[in-house]
Amino acid sequence: MGNKDAIFKTLVYSDIFDYPLKKNEIYEFLIGKKKSQNSFNKLLYSTDYNAFLKGNYYCLLGRESIIKKRIQREKESESKLKIAQSIIKKISFFPTILLIGISGALAMKNADKNDDIDLFIITKENTLWISRIFLILILKLMGSYREREDSDINNKICLNMFVSKDQMTLNKKRQNLYSAHEIVQMLPVFQRNNTYEQFLKANTWIARFLPNSLKGKRVDVPSKNDSFITFLFVSVLHLLHLEFISKKIQLYFINKHKTIETISDTLLAFHPIDYNKQTILRFEERLKIYEKI
Q1: HEC states along 212-240?
Q2: Which strand ranges, in their side-by-side order, compose the sheet holding 223-224?
Q3: d(CA 18, CA 13)
């Protein structure tokens, strides 16, 4: 991949989401080989990569309209972020939950007015199912859970993905450009035992796709530590076999409507549409189109 292509491909990928990039974002999400800030600056200002610059935003030529769209979505996202953070604060007390982060479009402040709120959760080992059933029940009581049949999903919580701490490294099948973006873009809101840092270290494969993205990556979210009461609580859960019971109950309902979900004891991924595969295909198709121009 040439230097010029690296910037161009980065803009093509973000264009899929109608998302123009600022200079620092192009650097962070640069597709290709790792670059120093100085070499990147020289590249950005010295090559022609068919981009349009307006204010602080770069986008592909002919796609200037998405700049206004990003600014509007940022305004819409601000209120959604406050709602998401408030809800996460209320549901994070359950001792088996190690991390809750905002994922998807909202994590990039790129959500539309009527979008739902995607959450990413990491749980303690062997507590994936009990953690999920607890969160569903609490969110239902709050009136914030996104049901399968909901037509109005505005600000509803979608429990997008659950990962168990003993298997935080995404499997080879999921290690691609889309997943790399989803991880580095995730906005952690709550964590225990410095789980976010551990999660990034467990997924260093990201550097193969976004080599600059992990450079100096840090989070300003305080980390709570486990107490003896937490240890005792989790031990009781295991003694009562509540993880096994929770799994059986949930599988009964999941299997009634199962489509493309990923279901295991260490990973639960619920996506109405396979955005991973869809996005990669759209990216490859757009690159082929631009190569012919």
Answers
A1: CCCCCCCCCCCEECCCHHHHHHHHHHHHC
A2: 223-224, 187-192, 97-103, 117-123, 157-164, 267-269, 262-263
A3: 9
Is the pLDDT assigned to residue 272 strictly greater than 70? no
Query: Which H/E stretch holds residue 163?
Result: strand 157-164
Q: Per-domain residue ranges for the chain? A: 3-63, 77-274
Distance CA 164, CA 265 (A): 8
Report the DSSP beta bridge partners of residue 7: none
- Hey, which bits of 165-266 come out as E strands? 187-192, 223-224, 262-263
For the stretch 249-262, pLDDT in tens is 999 998 888 777 88
> CA–CA separation, 199 vs 76, rounded Å?
29
Only one residue has tokens 């190569």, namely: 291
Q: Which class is domain 77-274?
A: alpha beta
Q: Are 250 and 132 in contact (CB under 8 A)?
A: yes
206 with 184: CB under 8 angstroms?
yes
Asked if 189 and 85 touch (Cβ cutoff 8 Å), the reply is yes
State the Cα–Cα distance between residues 205 and 176, nearest whole angstrom.
Answer: 9
pTM of the model: 0.92
**Are the CB atoms for 119 and 157 separated by under 8 Å?**
yes
* Long-range Cβ contact pairs of 45-49 (< 8 A, separation 24 or more): 47/3, 47/4, 47/7, 48/4, 49/4, 49/5, 49/7, 49/8, 49/11
- Is residue 3 over pLDDT 60? no
> How much is the pLDDT for 263?
92
CB 199 within 8 A of CB 122: yes
Check if the beta carbon of residue 30 is closer than 8 Å to that of residue 6: yes
The token duo for 3 is 């230097």
